[in-house]
Design brief:
The structure holds 3 protein chains of 3 kinds.
Chain A: H1 3-19, H2 23-27, H3 34-59, H4 67-84, H5 89-111, H6 117-136, H7 138-141, E1 147-148, E2 154-155, E3 158-159, H8 169-189, H9 192-202, H10 204-209, H11 214-240, E4 242-243, H12 250-263, H13 270-285, H14 292-306, H15 310-318, H16 339-342, E5 351-362, E6 365-376, E7 380-384, H17 391-398, E8 406-411, E9 414-415, H18 421-427, E10 429-431, H19 444-451, H20 460-464, H21 468-487, H22 503-516, E11 521-525, H23 533-548, E12 552-556, H24 560-566, E13 569-574, E14 577-582, H25 584-589, H26 591-598, H27 604-609
Parallel strand pairs in A: 7-12, 7-13, 10-11, 11-12
Antiparallel strand pairs in A: 1-4, 2-3, 5-6, 5-8, 8-9, 13-14
Helix pairs in contact in A: 3-8, 3-11, 3-12, 3-13, 4-5, 4-6, 4-11, 5-11, 9-11, 9-19, 12-13, 12-15, 19-21, 19-22, 21-22
Chain B: E1 6-15, E2 18-28, E3 33-37, H1 44-51, E4 59-64, E5 67-68, H2 74-80, E6 82-85, H3 97-104, H4 113-126, H5 128-132, H6 143-155, E7 161-165, H7 173-188, E8 192-197, H8 200-206, E9 209-214, E10 217-223, H9 224-228, H10 231-238
Parallel strand pairs in B: 3-8, 3-9, 6-7, 7-8
Antiparallel strand pairs in B: 1-2, 1-4, 4-5, 9-10
Helix pairs in contact in B: 3-6
Chain C: H1 2-32, H2 40-55, H3 60-83, H4 94-114, E1 130-132, E2 135-137, H5 139-161, H6 163-173, H7 175-180, H8 185-211, H9 217-232, H10 237-257, H11 263-277
Antiparallel strand pairs in C: 1-2
Helix pairs in contact in C: 1-5, 1-6, 1-8, 1-9, 1-10, 2-3, 2-4, 2-8, 2-9, 3-8, 5-6, 5-8, 5-10, 6-8, 9-10, 9-11, 10-11
Classes of the chains: A alpha/beta, B alpha/beta, C mainly alpha.
Chain lengths: 610, 244, 291
């Protein structure tokens, strides 16, 4: 769905909601009644909560089965502050957002490291604890009879009513919050935060390698979704003027999740569509009496079987553009404006990377054994050796993915041992992966934009409100991303999902994405694997070109001809140890290298040469 | 010559929209020793996964022992007589060497227990180091021993064709010097072998026929002695484009 | 002192139920790296079906065995229809939602047909309490830890000494490798879910005389059993049963010395904290993150 259609639909929805209370006056019927008005208000509140959950589930890829508890927390914060502390509506509402957000962050920070089923279990347990406390702590929460007599909310002395015949200002307040939530969601998703969330969900390793603090971004996602849930709760308490635990049980959590999935998780319109459809069908299911819950289970199963991508997700897929063949550009294409990426500093000749006495063990296996090597600035340094020689392991230590067992790594003159990948990435180390790790369900352009994550300065608030600095940075990032796509010849594919690219193009994209970090040191892990001869020649030109412009490159590779063509220096590893180190010509003639690399069975080729 | 034990026609393997194998024709004659060489990412392992039923081919047909087996799952292929020693060996490292070997005979247990006992003795004769470590947990074996175990495990299904993916992966030359003669001997006794190997020199030295793969296609095939002196192989493996 | 003994005994009994449920989760998880999330409903079926079948006039052993067989079948159907298609990618969680849907259906249909209230399952072992040092406990309650220990040992024997058990371990260790030695991993997984279904129903049948069989008896027990399994690391049979028993005892101690009302709040909080401290579980192995 294009942004314009989405905007029109949203405007239509806003108009419909705004007119809804007046329908009766137009058609001369008693419609809606206060009851019906309240149903719509409750649906809008659930929509706000679902939008928050969608950010968590659809974008950050984390499942919460305890969202109802955060919703309930917001409701109880608002109710308790009003009842027991006499807080006015506005500050109570603000706290009913902030407190759940803080609780969400506290719950998430240690948990988001474990994904999937573990997180689900923790959130379920949280939900159960929450309900248990509400039920049992009667003196504070009223237990089963709940908290009653919450005063009707007022803003600037104006009473916010919810009755059709008298005043229903509150209806419009909820509507405003709903529209604001939609706007915040849209702004967030189309910013570096949203991209980082999706990146972390789709390839955690690649996200970390691009300077994204995965724990922080997931905690943020959790806190945001909890904040939305709390807002919904606060609005609910001031609508019902009564709260008890029964509204916020595990069943409600499932219901909220179902709204998101039914509508289409990871789509902007999904939560609204899901809430509308589910809320209406719930009214219908009530007619089933004691079979209501059963019908609910059937509905959930049906959605998962028939519409796993949700209503909006399925529609969008069907409406997707058909196959068109597009021209792949030549690469490397040294377009103007690439200087910020390629132009380098005056440290040529210095050691960009120094590894001393590095040892890496996994259990009993020694993958890297006492390796010492130095990579000079502005050179292409190849790391070769047979399969399993420890090349990739070494690369993983340098980029922070594996902690060294012994030894030191110094990068740009500073010690780098023990730093996490995202910190090293922000210092200027970029890498690619042996089995390309793209963000498969993001577009080609978005993949490159993720690489620019660390360059943004606009704060969270500036981003959500789309203030000028955010818009300027976003514009610049977009321009640079497009230049990088031009550089690798993929401009025509900018809006394709990355997973649909042919293999060779995926390798190009991964390099463009790594360059978006504006690295000083680029680590390439078998970039030529799976490429055709022609593509390898282009790749050689690209690597050589980058090095000639001052970038330092470490290249793990098997293709000997490529190494000879591109490297300034070669280090040969075998069984985790350095067996040779020197300029390519010397290495090629070294008998130890020949034996390690080509095996020592009688080699017809050697005979030929002799 | 009778019909080949394994023949592939226009086999393609794709992951999503990415094609790893783009139409490969290949045949392994009965009792033959055939090699496939090629660099990383050439599609060798994907092809092996298709042959052994781990992935369903996106196109083409696979015929094994005269039967169309395209799309059969791996356990069905084992039952038909194809054993695969996978890349990375994949021994069950939480179980003993003996239990690993017995799992190798999974399809025969209860039907041919005497034959299994015989074969167990035979493979332990081939690899005496496994006999020494028969009650050890497989995870504590060295890489070379694990490779022996993986081969022995494959043999215990009494295969008609043994497929080995990356025999040399992470192994020292002296271990390879131990393993290759065993394969040659097995082949001499009538076992058909398909060997996938990145260490081209070894594969070319022991096999009769060799296929060279690049970018998901077979770019060259022929008698191993001819392939070994083909300039394209020299280029790809030794980078002597200038010198050759 | 007497009170403590009483808590320990009843805790042992309640904990054995958690242990048995956790064992079922362990069996499923090992085979599929996925579970029937609402496995508690198998436990419920064990109790409720036995009661219903007895009310229809079947003798206790026949009723119990039929209930257990039905739960095994249900376990297999759930695996085939609701878990397998939703567990194709690693890290997939579709199965979590589909099995929740099934659980809702099973519980809701039971409530609608069987009624919302619990009914007793008569047992000769739940009539006269035994006196142990001043504490009272039904023999039926002592049957639970015995059953838990015997089933754990039987399961360990199965995994270590039988061809099928070793095949199940092989599937658990590496599905691809299992297929390459001729094991039909899908069938083994189906079998594991059937086994777990039977195990859950057995636990439900054994505990029904003590707590009454009701449509809602499975939900919370199932969730606690799953948390127990995860805290134990879902790594071995003994570990999950031990943690289950310990959790049961902890619950009774909290009930006894603090309050019944606070039991679940404290218990769940404890479990959350344990999971935060030991993300891989108490007996789990840290996995090397592959890059």
């Amino acid at each position: 769905m294009s942004a314009r259609i989405g905007f029109l639909l949203l405007a239509g929805l806003a108009a419909a909601l705004a007119v809804f209370p007046w329908v009766g006056d137009l058609i001369g019927e008693r419609f809606p009644t206060s009851y019906e008005l309240r149903l719509v208000m409750r649906a809008m509140i659930l929509g706000i909560v679902a939008i928050g959950l969608n950010i968590l589930v659809g974008y950050a890829g984390l499942v919460s089965l305890g969202q109802a508890a955060l919703y309930g927390l917001g409701a109880h914060v608002a109710a308790l502050l009003a009842l027991k502390a006499g807080f006015p509506f506005v500050p109570a509402l603000v706290l009913s957002v902030l407190i759940p957000a803080a609780v969400g962050a506290m719950l998430a920070f240690p948990t988001v490291r474990v994904r999937g089923v573990y997180l689900a279990v923790i959130t379920i347990a949280f939900g159960l604890v929450f309900v248990n406390i509400l039920r049992e702590w009667v003196s504070f929460t009223g237990g089963a009879s709940g908290l009653v007599g919450i005063p009707r909310p007022t803003i600037l002395g104006e009473r916010l009513g919810a009755t059709r015949s008298m005043s229903f200002n509150y209806y419009y307040l909820i509507m405003l919050f709903l529209l604001a939530s939609v706007a915040v969601q849209a702004a967030l998703v189309r910013s570096r935060y949203g991209r980082a969330m999706r990146a972390a969900a789709q390839s955690e390793n690649a996200a970390r390698a691009l300077g994204i603090n995965v724990v922080a971004i997931r905690t943020l996602a959790f806190a945001i979704s909890a904040g939305f849930a709390g807002l919904g709760g606060g609005l609910f308490a001031n609508l019902a003027l009564f709260v008890n635990y029964e509204t916020f049980t595990f069943t409600t959590s499932i219901e909220l999740l179902l709204m998101v999935i039914l509508g289409g998780s990871g789509t902007l319109a999904g939560p609204l569509v899901g809430t509308t459809v589910l809320f209406s069908s719930t009214q219908f299911l009530q007619g089933l009496g004691e079979w209501q819950t059963f019908g609910y289970g059937v509905l959930l199963a049906l959605v998962l079987f028939i519409l796993p991508r949700g209503i909006v997700g399925s529609l969008m897929r069907r409406g997707g553009s058909g196959e068109t063949s597009r021209a792949t550009g030549a690469w490397p294409n040294w377009v103007d404006g690439l200087e910020p990426v390629t132009a380098r500093h005056d440290d040529a000749g210095q050691a960009t990377l120094a590894v001393r006495g590095l040892t890496l063990r996994f259990g009993g296996l020694t993958a890297v054994n006492d390796v010492t090597m130095e990579v000079r600035a502005g050179t292409v340094h190849a790391l070769i050796g047979p399969n399993g020689a420890g090349k990739s392991s070494l690369l993983n230590v340098v980029s922070g993915f594996y902690p060294a067992t012994l030894g030191t790594v110094t990068v740009f003159g500073e010690t780098a041992g023990g730093l996490p990948p995202y910190v090293l990435a922000r210092r200027g180390i970029a890498r690619t992966f042996q089995n390309t790790e793209l963000f498969g369900q993001m577009t080609v352009l978005e993949n490159v934009l993720v690489g620019q994550h660390p360059h943004f300065r606009a704060s969270f608030l500036e981003t959500v409100l789309r203030l000028p600095r955010f818009r300027r940075e976003e514009r610049e990032a977009m321009a640079e991303a497009r230049r990088l796509l031009q550089f690798v010849g993929l401009s025509a594919f900018a809006d394709d999902e990355a997973r649909n690219l042919p293999f060779g193009h995926q390798r190009r994209l991964e390099i463009a994405r790594a360059l978006a970090l504006r690295p000083k040191l680029l680590l390439l892990d078998e970039p030529a694997a799976g490429l055709t001869h022609g593509e390898i020649e282009d790749l050689v030109a690209l690597i050589r070109g980058l090095a000639d412009r001052g970038m330092t490159i470490v290249l793990v590779e098997h293709h000997v001809d490529m190494i000879m063509a591109v490297s300034d220096r070669v280090t040969v590893l075998d069984y985790g140890e350095v067996i040779a180190d020197g300029p390519p010509a010397t290495i090629q003639a070294d008998p130890r290298v020949i034996e390690a690399y080509f095996g020592h069975a009688t080699l017809p080729a050697q005979k030929v040469e002799a | 010559m009778s019909q080949p034990i394994l023949s592939l026609s226009a086999v393609r393997v794709a992951y999503g929209r990415i094609e790893a194998v783009r139409g490969v024709d290949l045949a392994v004659g009965r009792g033959a020793f055939v090699g496939i060489i090629g660099s990383n990412g050439a599609g060798k392992t994907s092809l092996m996964r298709a042959i052994s039923g781990v992935v369903r081919p996106a196109g083409g047909t696979i015929t094994f022992d005269g039967e169309d087996v395209t799309g059969r799952k791996s356990h069905e292929m084992v039952a038909r007589g194809l054993a695969m020693v996978p890349e990375g060996r994949m021994v069950f490292s939480d179980q003993s060497v003996r239990d690993n070997l017995m799992l190798g005979a999974y399809t025969r247990i209860g039907r041919d227990d005497a034959g299994v006992a015989d074969d167990l003795e035979k493979v332990l004769g081939l690899f005496p180091r496994l006999a020494e470590r028969i009650d050890q947990v497989a995870g504590t074996l060295s890489g070379g021993e694990q490779q022996m175990l993986a081969i022995a495990r494959g043999l215990l299904s009494r295969p008609k064709l043994l497929v080995i993916d990356e025999l040399s992966l992470g192994l020292a030359p002296k271990i390879l010097d131990l393993l290759f003669p065993v394969l040659t001997a097995l082949n001499r006794d009538g076992l058909s072998i398909l060997l996938v190997e990145q260490m081209a020199s070894y594969a070319l030295a022991v096999t009769e026929r060799t296929y060279v793969m690049e970018n998901g296609r077979v770019i060259l095939e022929g008698a191993s002695t001819d392939v070994a002196v083909d300039p394209r192989v020299l280029d790809a493996y030794l980078g002597r484009r200038g010198a050759a | 002192m007497e009170a403590v003994i009483q808590y320990l005994l009843t805790g042992l009994s309640a904990g054995s139920v958690y242990g048995l449920i956790a064992l079922g989760f362990y069996v499923m998880w090992s085979a599929a790296k996925a579970v029937n999330f609402t496995y508690g409903e198998m436990f419920m079926l064990g109790g409720v079906l036995t009661v219903v079948l007895m009310e229809l006039g079947l003798p206790l052993p026949v009723a119990a065995l039929t209930a257990i067989a039905a739960a095994a079948l249900a376990g297999a159907v759930i695996e085939r229809v609701f878990v397998r298609p939703f567990n194709q990618e690693s890290n997939a969680i579709g199965w979590m939602l589909t099995t929740i849907a099934v659980g809702i259906m099973i519980e809701a249909s039971t409530t609608a047909t069987y009624g919302p209230l619990g009914r007793p399952l008569p047992s000769p072992l739940a009539e006269e309490p035994l006196r142990i040092g001043g504490s009272g406990i039904y023999p039926q309650e002592l049957l639970l830890p015995v059953a838990a220990i015997l089933i754990t040992l039987a399961l360990e024997f199965f995994y270590r000494r039988t061809v099928l058990g070793r095949a199940m371990r092989a599937v658990s260790f590496n599905r691809v490798a299992a297929g390459l030695v001729g094991i039909d991993a899908d069938r083994i997984t189906l079998l594991a879910f059937a086994m777990a279904g039977a195990l859950g129903a057995l636990a439900g049948f054994l505990v029904a005389p003590v707590i009454q069989a009701s449509a809602s008896m499975g939900v919370i027990v199932g969730l606690k059993g799953f948390m127990v399994a995860i805290i134990a690391g879902i790594a071995n049979a003994r570990g999950v049963v031990v943690v289950g028993i310990l959790y049961g005892i902890a619950e009774k101690l909290i009930e006894g010395f603090l309050s019944t009302a606070a039991r679940d709040a404290i218990g769940f909080t404890l479990m959350i904290l344990l999971l935060l401290l030991f993300p891989q579980g108490l007996f789990g192995r840290a996995e090397v993150r592959k890059v």
